[in-house]
Input
Amino acid sequence: MRSTLFTIAVLGGFLISGDAAVYAEPSAGSTTTVPEAPIGHLQPHAPQFSPRVPAEQAAQQQMSIFDAQQQKMDEELDKRLNICRC
Output
């Protein structure tokens, strides 16, 4: 029991010290660099989108038709399945 506790304590110490090394400042001789974020990438804003574009409406209509078909097929499958829901 004591050896198990000692082993856990030693391994925990290694994990903590290893984690601290990850967050430590890089050494003076280190040549690794952190890449910078790309410039010019912005979050889109609502005025940049046109909600009434014909292509968008056609895509929404196709998705609605597909969803209705899937729902009908799901209901038919539910009727055919005999699952006890007690």
Remarks:
- The radius of gyration is 30 Å.
- The CA atoms of residues 69 and 75 lie 10 Å apart.
- The chain has a mean pLDDT of 77.
- The first helix runs from residue 2 to 23.
